[in-house]
Each structure stands twice: as C-alpha cells, then as structure tokens.
C-alpha cells in the first residue's frame, strides 16, 4: 500500500487507487466533469487536475487517471491549480453556455467572467456518452470522429445506427444536453448564479427543484430556505 | 539470394560485391521525393539513354536525396565528386560526353556570390556539414541491399550480436546519444528501462510519423538509406530483448514506405531478419504500419494506440510504454534518426561519437533548412554549431540585416530572433530560449514575414491536429487562433495579449501529452521576442512586414507609372483605373489586397503601404 500525502493528510492508499479515489474517500472535493464511477476514466476535461511533486518538479496531472505511487505528494487546490481550473471552465462555458452542470460549477468556483466569444455548441466532448454506450449499454453505437476543431460525436457515417437501441443512456449521462441552464444571456455568458445565492447548493441539495431554470428566486426554493432559517433563528 | 548463416559469410559477401563493382565513373542521381517532384526521374531516364552503348565506362546510380533541395535535380559524378545542379533531361548527353572527355560543363556547376564550385566538397552548403548519417546517400541505391553491404553495412550488427546486451546499452550510454524525435531523452537509459522489464514479449517501434510542416529528415533517411535504420532497430531489439519490431511510417510518404518495405524483404531474404540471425540464436522480424497522417500519432502512446487499431489518442503516463506499451507489452520507441545513429556508434565506438558535439548533446543532428535562405535543403551538422553558421554559412541567407528570426522545432517549437543566433545548437540552449530541438525543422524568416501571422499559421495547424481529447488543448488552441486571427484582421485589443499569455501558460501546464504541452510555444515565443509587432498591429494598426491584409494598402507611385495597363488588365476586382499611357490609380474601396498588381508591375510603380486607417472591413 503506497503511502501518499494529500493536502497534508498522510494516507495508505490501496494499490490500484487513483488520486481522485483517495480524495473522494477522504471527503476532499475535486471538481470533475468527464468522470463517472461506473465508467473507465478518460482524463479529457482536465478539471480534476491536482498538483503533484515538489519544488521545480511540481506538475499538474489529472487526478482521475493518475494512480497512486509511493511517496506521492498531492495538493488539490493550490493557486496554480485553481487558476488553471478556472481557465478550463471559462473555455468550456464559452463553448457550451447552456450546460447547467458547467454553470453550477462556475458559480461554485467563483468564475465571474468569460472572455471568449460564446460558441453556443451543445457538446463539450467529455466522452461520457461514448463510454456509457460502449461500457454500460454494450452497444458501441456512437463514437468520436475527426480531431481538433472538427471533432464530433456521432454514429458511424452520421447514419441512424442499427446498434442503437434508443436506450437514452447517452442523454441520461450528458452534462450538457439534459440539464439546461436557461439563465445565460447573450451579453454575459454566465447565468443568473442561482447556485451561488441559494446556499447550500441547488446542485447538491435541490437538484430536483426548478431553480435550475435560472429563475432567480422565482421558484420559491430559496424562500422556503429563508423561512426555515428564520424559524431556527427565532 | 542465399541466406547468410554465419557472420563470416557476410564478410565474404561484402568482398564479393566489392570485387564485382565497376571501378569507373558513377553518376549518382538524387531521386528522393523532393527530387522526383522537380523531375529527377526524367533526368535519370535521360542519363540511362545517354550511357547506352558505353559499356562499363559509366554507370548510373539512382539514389535517395543528396540533401541539397535547392539544386534538385542534381547529380554527383564519382569518383571526382563533381556536382551538377538544376538539371534538365536534355543536359544528360552533354554531361556524359564531357565526363568521358574529362571536362566540366561550366554552365551547370554550382555558383554562389559570383564564385563557381566544381566539387561537392567545395560548395559552402556541404563544406560546413558533417554528414555521418546522410553522407552515404549518394552511394546507395535504396532498393539494393548490396550497395549498403558494400559500404560496410550490417558490420555493426555482426559485431553487436556477439556482444552482450548490457555491453551494447553501456556503449550507447557512453556515447551520450539522445532521442532525435524532440524530447531528447537519453537513448541508453530508455533501452535499459525496457531491458529491465520482465516479460518474454517486447517490442521495438521505429517512429517515422514525421508530421511537422517543413521537416523531412526522417523521410530522407528512410528513402535514402533504409537499411541503416533497420540495422539500428535490430541492434536495439537485441539489446532490449525484443522479438518483433514495427516501423510506423505515415502513408503520405509512399516512397519511404516502398523503400523500407523492400529493404525489410531483402534483409529477410539474406537471413538478416528472421530466425537465428547469423547463427547467433537471436530472432527478430519487422512489420510496417502505415499511419493516416495525424500529427498527434507521433506521440508515443498515441502511436501505440494507432498500431493497435484504436483511435490515435495519447494516454496518461505512468505507466510508460516501456512498462505497458504495444498490446500491453514493454515497448521501446525510437525515432528514425536516433536508430540510424546506432550502427555507427557500435562500429566506430562510443568515444568517437561522444567526441562530436557539446557536453550534453552528442553527435550530429539533421535539420531541414527552409524559408528565406538561398540554399534550402537537409543539413547535417555537429551539435554545438551556432545558429549563425547554419543559417548564414550553410543556408546562405541574404545579408545579415534582413533575416529576422528562425522557427525551430516545427509547430511546437519557438521563434528565435537574430540577436540570439550566436547560440549553439543543442537541447539545453534551445529550450532555454523558448524553442525546442524538435525533430529538426528550421524555418528562416526575414523582414517580410509577420511574427503574428506566423504564430497564427502554426496555431491553425495545431488546432486542426490536436486530438481533441483534452478540453484545454482543443478549446485553447482554437481560442488562441481566434484571438490571433482577430489581431491580424484588425480587431485586436490590448488585453488580448495578456489573455494569450495566460491561456498559453495554462495550456502548457495542464495538457496531457507533448502536443498540448508545446502547442503554445509559437505564440509565447513570438510574444516574448516580437511583442512590438503585436503592439504595432493593435495600437498603431500597422503590419511592418506587409503581410496582414487588414493593414496594408497598395498605391501607384506618380513618377514611376508609365501607364502600360498591365496592372489594370490583371486586376481581378477591376479596382484599377486609368487611361493607356497615363497615370493609373487604385480604387481603395474595391481593392482586395491580393497583390497581383504589385507582383506584375515591371516598373516598381506599385507600392505597399502600412498604417493609417484600417483598410479592410
């Protein structure tokens, strides 16, 4: 069992664990997007980066794909890490501003500006649907085509696939197309920040409530919370 | 061909080949892909017809690239080493005739700055080079294994097979040979790590997926001397204990594929590949895998995925390919040029090799010298030579004041300005100034090259070639391209430069593979050395190089215009007006800055101006 240090906590990690596994076990929060417990790790979104090593040899790696090794020193939220995460998120939100998952994450991280022109795409190429289709649904009916700026997820030859059973697994797991954030306005790509103003978060606690519509305060959830607070106070 | 069963038989074969070789004049014709593109095959055909009936007095050798691209199609006449350049098929008869008479054809020899050079060794382009890898190209017909054997080929293999693998690795370690693919990892260490893996099956891969724009060293080696690479692979395989090798070569190199496939077949026929090579008990065979031209497949883990038939995506290391590589087995991947060095080191010894170069970088390096130089071509120089020597002495750049910078290391490399041309060419000093050795592309730029535009060009290449797996590399390169396009089209803002720097730094930091980690280099290095040019675009709305169309205007000078009407006739936009034999003028609102009038005018009356108001909307 390799001994590792993660944010100052010494831990004997089982051999096949990744840094993210350890963090989850210890209750340390690392934001993730393309990670799902039921699927193989991908390491594509880069949001789960952490800093490993010390001094000049310190570097950033994706915690979901990096296996623990003896003597590993991990810091999960240094300035360098947070700055990079914010930039990644900024890029992803500029690509797909309607993703509720991304907007919530932005609120949580305190991202307050998007300096790039929004693309209004419907996909962030996290690959969750591709892996879902292949690994859980055993269908392999969708996949990536092309590369770089022409990258796309689609069925073979863009035709309706015979392998696809319309199970909807891809949509279920998609962080961009199921949960839509309707908050973002063309002038400011970031949404109305319902997440920030409704503490605790609507993502973790109220995800079935309608505040994901971006109707700040209108869904009533926050009012319930406030009245509960008042009760406690009195 | 009879199979060689013992090393002595190889020696005897070499003697037999040498004895049967014609001792008379040989005309060696450079017929690499580059030569063929300029008509070398027709020249070769003309030579073959010209020597008909001359018996054995003159023989023809169709070889790989001689390196001097600017002079293609070129021939070298041995044994005198007379060099003729830019030949046409009709020159063949004259050359054959004068060679028989012992004369020189004056108008076909190489001339530079008013001096004429008859012999190859005198030409400035060749004089400063040290051609230990490429030097044999003019002597070898790559389709014929006998040529390679006659020059001492496979001698190193016969020697290595009777050394212990540890001895070979020790020798390579002593030589200080480092990977020529870009990162410069010590070769001996790499072999040692793979050797130490406990697995019965191991692989050795030759990485010939050369994708940089303007770089063609590996192609030239595989085309010109494929057996040297195969021999290097065999020695490497013996050292690490691999039983199977792969050559991963891109399909865009049809000639290289053809030559390496033929070479493998011939080596197999001779018993140099297969079971129990030369009676040593070592068995090895090589397969060829053809890549579909993705730049990212030059990255080790992506290359492995591609051979396995998967999508060419890099993966997280560790585990390294040496531990878990092709088909899950320990795999060693080396670049073509690195492997071609191996037989030379084994034959001549590590001490000889480590005598060349600097403290940390040993041996020679092949660069493809292109861009604004007179003598473009492949140059092989010892490590530690200064950039100035390569660019001005070998390349013959046009006057020192005009050259602005050199882009080293391809799209992932960086721009080095003229002030730093005193730097020696080695891994550390290039990395220190923001470039990389890379695979060895060297693009020389002069005052007519815009730094912003060149950064935009390379970023465009990278945004297309990024595999798209990492969000930061995929989106980041696209956004950098977007910002740079904005600057070149006159939409730049001052904060764009900060954003470029910040974004570039983070792409470098966060990306998974080498492509992403080096992708911002063209932007960051031009920002570092040519920030004034960026500022000129943004603040002054000027492009001093006159490249970015948004900032230039074409005008017709009053004094020089003779009213010939040539520009008016050729203008695709009908933007030029004026009567015949009278002053013409350009209608700026119609002009699309195509520059045809500028190129056409024989009186230099059309002038290019930059600055003032923005010209294109």
Comma- or semicolon-separated keywords:
heterodimer, A: Ubiquitin-like (UB roll), Alpha-Beta Plaits, 3 domains, five-stranded mixed β-sheet, 7 helices, globular, B: 617 residues, alpha/beta, Glutaredoxin, Rossmann fold, Ubiquitin-like (UB roll), 5 domains, four-stranded mixed β-sheet
Description:
The complex is a heterodimer of chains A (234) and B (617). Chain A is α+β, with helices and mostly antiparallel strands and 234 residues long. Chain A folds into 3 domains: 3-77, Roll (Ubiquitin-like (UB roll)); 82-121 and 181-233, no CATH class; 128-173, Alpha-Beta Plaits (2-Layer Sandwich), CATH 3.30.70. Helix content of chain A is 28%, strand content 11%. In chain A, the strands form 2 sheets. Chain A has a 5-stranded mixed beta sheet with strand order 2-1-5-3-4, sandwiched between helices. A two-stranded antiparallel sheet of chain A has the order 6-7. The mean pLDDT of chain B is 90. Chain B starts with 6 loop residues before the first helix and ends in a 7-residue tail after the last strand. Chain B has 5 domains: 20-139, 3-Layer(aba) Sandwich (Glutaredoxin); 153-353, 3-Layer(aba) Sandwich (Rossmann fold), CATH 3.40.50; 364-446, Ubiquitin-like (UB roll); 451-540, de novo design (two linked rop proteins); 552-610, Alpha-Beta Plaits. In chain B, the strands form 6 sheets. In chain B, strands 12-11-15-13-14 form a 5-stranded mixed beta sheet. Classes of the chains: A alpha+beta (234), B alpha/beta (617). At the A-B interface, strand 4 and helix 2 of A face helix 18, helix 19 and helix 20 of B.
The strand count of chain A comes to 7
Strand order of the largest sheet of chain B: 12-11-15-13-14
Q: Which chains make the largest contact?
A: A-B, 39 and 33 residues
Largest sheet of chain A, in brief, is:
5 strands, mixed
Helix-and-strand structural type of chain B:
alpha/beta
* Domains of chain B, number: 5
Estimate the global geometry of chain B from the Cα principal axes. globular
End-to-end gap of chain A: 51 Å
Radius of gyration of chain A: 20 Å
Strand content of chain A: 5-15%
Number of helices of chain B: 25
Can you list the strand order of the major beta sheet of chain A?
A: 2-1-5-3-4
CATH architecture identity of the largest domain in chain B: 3-Layer(aba) Sandwich
Described by the principal axes of the CA atoms, the overall outline of chain A is globular
The overall average pLDDT of chain A, rounded, is: 82
The CATH H-level superfamily of the largest domain in chain B is NADH-ubiquinone oxidoreductase 51kDa subunit
What is the assembly state of the chains in this entry? heterodimer
Distance between the termini of chain B: 70 Å
The number of strands of chain B is: 19
